[in-house]
């Protein structure tokens, strides 16, 4: 699913599984930050996927912040 990386892994994480894993961590720990360390877009769909991932991760981190 994440083809815009230097070493894509067939059968690797899907967007949904990655978001679910971060969400599960956020139920147990305070998330201080999130970093995307590798991104090599070749296709507009790669940017769309990253935007969806970023939106989901920001939502998770924001939901754990005190008001």
Can you walk through the features of this model?
This protein is mainly α. The chain has a domain at 12-25 and 42-67. The chain is built from two helices and no strands. It has helices spanning 15-28, 44-63. Helix 1 runs parallel beside helix 2. The longest helix has 20 residues, at 44-63. The protein is elongated, with a radius of gyration of 13 Å. The model has no long low-confidence stretch (mean pLDDT 85).
Shape label:
elongated
Q: How large is the share of residues in beta strands?
A: under 5%
Structural class given helices, strands, pairing?
A: mainly alpha
List low-pLDDT spans: none
- Series of H and E elements: HH
The count of helical stretches stands at 2
Terminus-to-terminus distance? 35 Å
Salient structural properties:
elongated, 0% strand, 67 residues, 51% helix, mainly alpha
């Amino acid at each position: 699913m994440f083809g815009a990386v230097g070493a894509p892994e067939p059968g690797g994480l899907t967007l949904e599984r990655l978001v679910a894993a971060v969400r599960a961590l956020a139920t147990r720990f305070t998330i201080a930050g999130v970093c995307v360390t590798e991104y090599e877009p070749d296709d507009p769909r790669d940017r769309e996927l990253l935007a969806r991932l970023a939106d989901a991760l920001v939502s998770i981190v924001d939901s754990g912040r005190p008001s």
